[in-house]
Structure formats: C-alpha cells, structure tokens
Sequence to fold (617 residues):
Amino acid sequence: MNHWIIIPVILPAMVAPLIVLGMRNDLTLQRIASIAATVALLAVSALLLVQASTSGPQVYLLGNWAAPFGIVLVLDRLSALMVALTALLALGVVLYAVGSGWDGRGKNFHALFQFQLMGICGAFLTGDAFNLFVFFEILLIASYGLMIHAGGRDRLRAGVQYVVFNLAGSTLFLFALGAIYAITGTLNMADLAVKVADLPEGHDALLRVAGVLLLIVFAVKGALVPFQFWLPGTYALAPGPVAALFAVMTKVGAYAILRFYTLIFGPEVEATGTFYANLLVPLALVTLVVGMVGVLGARSLARLAAFAAIGSMGTLFLAMSDFTPLSTAATLYYLIHSTIAAALMFLVADMVLERRGNTLLVPRPPIARHGLIAALFFASAIAMAGMPPLSGFLGKLLILDALGDRADMAITWSAILITSLIAIVGMSRAGSIVFWKAHAISGDPAEVRPMPLAFTATFGMLGVLVAMTVLAGPLMGWLQETADQVHDTGAYIDAVLGLGATEDN
Amino acid sequence: MEILVASAIGLMTASGVYLVLRLRAWPVILGLTMLTYAVNVFLFTSGRLVVDMPAILSADAGGYADPLPQALVLTAIVISFGMTAVAVMMALGAFLEAGDDRVEMTDQEDRK
Fold:
C-alpha cells in the first residue's frame, strides 16, 4: 500500500494540535509551523499528482480492513488534482494572512486553518460516503471558527446564519446516507456503485429520493440556487483570506456531485438514468443568472466577489451537467481557474477594505498603493468575467465547445454569454467607482504599513492564472485523461473492491 | 413498533423544521437539536428494526441486529453534540455583541 495517500490528512491533523498546544502564545512560531506545513502539503500533493498520473486509481485501506468493510481512501487523478489545488490555494492564502496580519487579530487562526485543510483534503480523498460526511463536518467546524475569526458584531451574526444553514445541511446528509444504507446495505462508494447498478426492483423510488437528498446536500456546499442564500453574507463578512480559502469549499460540493453522479448514480444506471443531470441543468442556469445579476447589483466589492463566486459555480454546474468526458475536462479546467480567480478577487477586496475601512461602491479618496491594487482588481475582474487574455476566457470557451452538441445549446450558450456581459458591466462599474472616481476626490491616502508578503501572495495567484493560460494545451491534455478516468468507473471499482479481495489472503 | 418509530421520527422532524424556521437563535438551535434526534433514530432504523437479536452473525441465532448503523449513530451523536455546542457559543457571542438574538440580518447590515 502507498502510505503517501493519507499524508494530506495526517499532516495538518498533526500540525494543528501542535500549534494549539505548543505554540499558543507565540504567533511567530505558529506562522512558521503553518507555512512549513502548507509547503509540505503542497510538496506531498505534487508527489501524489505524479503518482496518480502514472498509475490507475490507488487504494489505501485504513487499519488494513478490506473494502467494503473498512474505510478506504482512494487516490485517482481527480482527487490528486483537487488536493493539489487545495494545497496551492492554501499556500497563497496563508502567506496573505501572515503578510496582512489577519492571523494575529484573533486566536488560533493557524490551527483552525490546518484543521480546515485536513477536512478538505480528506473529503477529496475518501472513498466512503459516511467518511465523506465526517470530513465535511471537520471542514465545517473549522470553517465556523475561521469565519468568525477576529469577531465583530456583523461577522458573528452572519456566522450564526452560516452555522444554522450548514447544520441543517448536515442533518439532510445523514438522512440521505441512512436511506442509502437501508436500500443497499453499504456506504463504500465503489461497493455502492456495484449495488446500485443491479438494484432489485421495487427500490427505485426510495433510491431516487436518497439521490435527490444527496444532491441537495452537495448543492448547499456548492451554492446552487435555491441553496445559495448562505454564501453572500458569509463570504462578504468573513476575513479576506478566509473568504479566499472558502473559494475551494464550494468546489468540495462540486467535486462530490461529480464523483457521486458519475460513479454511483451515473446516466447508465437504470433506476435513475439522466434524472439528476436533467435536474442540474435548470438549477445551474438560474444560479448563473442569480450570481451575475448579483454582481451587477452588489453594493460593495466583497459582495460583488461573493456573487461572482456564485455565478462561476453556475457555469461550473452547467458544464458538469452534461456528464461526458469532454464536458468534464472543460469543467475541471474551469474549476481550477474559478477557484484561484475567486480567491484573488476576495484578496483584492480585502486589500481595499484594509485601506479604506469598507468596500462600499462609493467614491472615496485614493488609497495607499492605489494603482497596484486597481491593476490587481482589473486582472481579477477579467479572469472572473471570462474575458481574454486570462484563463477564464479559455475556460468558458471550452465549456461552450463541450455544450455545443446538446439540444438545449441555444439556451445554455446564450445564458453563459449574456451573463458574462452582465458580469463585465457590473465589474467595470464597480472598478470605475472605487478606483477611477477616487481621483476626482482630493485627499492624501492614509499611511498603511507596506505588506510585501501579501502582495507577493496575490501576484502569485495571478501568476497561476497566467500559467494556466500559457500552458492550457498540456493542462487540457492531462485533464482530458483525468476526465476519461472519472468516467471509467470500472477501474475505480476494481481498484477498491479488487484490492480488498487480494489483501484478504 | 414500526408505526411508533416512524411517527416519532416524523413528529421530531416536523417540530424541528418548524423551530428552525423561527426568527430567534434559541428556538432555531432547539430545532436543529430536534432534527438531529430525528436523524439519529432514522439512522438506527436503517439497519431494520429487530428485537432480541445478537449484534453479530451467529450460527445459533435466527437473525442479527445490524451493528453498523449503531456505529454510524454513535459518530453522528458525537458530531451533532459538538456542532450544537459550537452553534450555542456562536449564537451567544452574537447575542452579547448585538444585544438581541434575531437570526435574520437587517438590510443595513446586509449592505456591508
């Protein structure tokens, strides 16, 4: 067995208690430990990425209990990609948090941050549905702490809403898992795929209900309309670096939907067929419209970024709902892009917040480092809206191409193109009010301590987007193979259940 | 027994949903607690309702009680207990900071 697979879970799980217990009064030590752990996580995830691309799905049996009886972790290209994306984003975020001083404004930022990484990496790696629930709870409970980091009345109130919404979602998750267990008698994802594929007659209705419940749970995470209400308040009021990290949390929902509805409830399953894909299309269309109209109507930069994130999730789910290897490859490209771009936008909004006390879209005197921040916002807006030359444009082009053969192509194409235009208008409006009209008002910018590390982290994220654009060809080739692997469910099932059989002897 | 368990789950879920939709933090948290009670019993029944059966397969017994849902319920209880504690602390923090325990945010707060 390849023991590297469990390191992305173990490493943060070990570092976080160490930070709480051994370094609680020393911020410098905490910073060193947290950055070192994140760099190590990135290195391990790069190693896993290489391993996943050179071999088929690999299985890690926890406690060496054979699947489907024990819990398994599964490393395939998709999960390796998601872990690597998380680690890359986390490095940028932790550098920004240190550079901007956000981590010192409350206690335990770095410990919660590491626990959050543990939950996210675990959710991407697990091959067991109940274990997925457990990792969801780990990432949620850490996110509750991060969300209200540094406190404040509005943040706490938004935090309560966020907690209540997600607790209700967790309850629903348990209902779905209970129903699935009652029907199939297993919760191992590969075993579920086998059991669901040849389900005895008479259980179809209950299975479909359980599938819809699961879809709702993942839609809550992925901010799919009508379950997006928690997102704008949470993301806009969370500390900037936390909101940037949360950009990958919505992708946990997207990943779970991609995994479950290709592996277990795929279109070839008799009991469910394309039921879920058909459900996803209208919801994704509405999400796209709500998000981009929200961008146009937002009253502050932070809220604009939050609605842009909802809109990008709409685009993502629309592309995903086709459930073919071609569309999945496009989805994955856009997923990487939108995670980094949304995080970049939250960080820029935080830089503005830092320098003028709010991000309201009203003209104020210029802020310190005005030009640099304006340029960063310009770049992030181009990326989010999907204009050339950055990777958002390529991502949307790939999605349009993948959806071009569908019967509802007229609707999906016009939805994506028109909402892109709305987003461009909304972001230009916001950018001109905040950054250009500022020059009409005289006043010296308040002195702010220079934050070289924060700017480095932000430009680093922009660099990732540029790299994604330049290296789009090789990246797409790799992602196409990944998408093929995602849809080749046989290999996944064989890896999990086959390994269990051989280890028995 | 089936009717008793089913109606208990249904009643707890219904009252939980009703309470979650209230506007004050305290009833909402009580509602979440009711929902987790309901889901715990539901998970328990997902291994089928049986009486007086061993929790393991045995040649002598006529059947067995599925032990897996019991393990799942145990995990779910621990997690929901922790989550409820976090929710109570956050609601308390919001109450102390804001002076009231409304769950919804006013337009003024929403604009930020």
